[in-house]
Write a structure and sequence with these properties.
27% of the residues lie in helices and 23% in strands. The chain folds into 2 domains: 1-31, no CATH class; 34-132, no CATH class. The two termini are 45 Å apart. A two-stranded antiparallel ribbon has the order 1-4. Strands 2-3 form a two-stranded antiparallel ribbon. Strands 5-6 form a two-stranded antiparallel ribbon. It is extended. By secondary structure, the protein is α+β, with helices and mostly antiparallel strands. The chain is built from 4 helices and 6 strands; from the N terminus they run ββαββααββα. The chain has helices at 15-18, 34-43, 48-57, 97-108; strands at residues 3-5, 8-10, 23-25, 29-31, 65-73, 85-94.
Amino acid sequence: MATSKNYSAVVKGGFWETNGVGTLANHPLVRPSARRLVAQWLGGSKLMYVKELADTLNGVAPGAVASKSTGVVSASVELGGVRPIVQAVVVNRATTATDKQEIDDDFYTMTNRTTFGANPPANLDRNPLGTR
């Protein structure tokens, strides 16, 4: 679900103050939800293979074939003219058990706290780089 906030600014001179406007208020600023941001992130060409692997592994055992191709404009040395659309293969291979583990690591490790166990390393000078 998207969240919205209202913002306003007090006008201090310029066009708006000259014309009798003392405060400018915007329409509610709508920020996309985390789910939408992740969907946009996975929909990009660089991470489309992760989405396809996850979709293929959803509900089936590793070993199913994940395949995804997309249309791209073909390269040409010419500076103009019509260029054909060709199919570029994003992923076309059998899934493995390590694919599931890598996807889980990518999505879930940032939500887990990491600890150093019972004996954390000394950081006596409080350096953020952790020198001793």
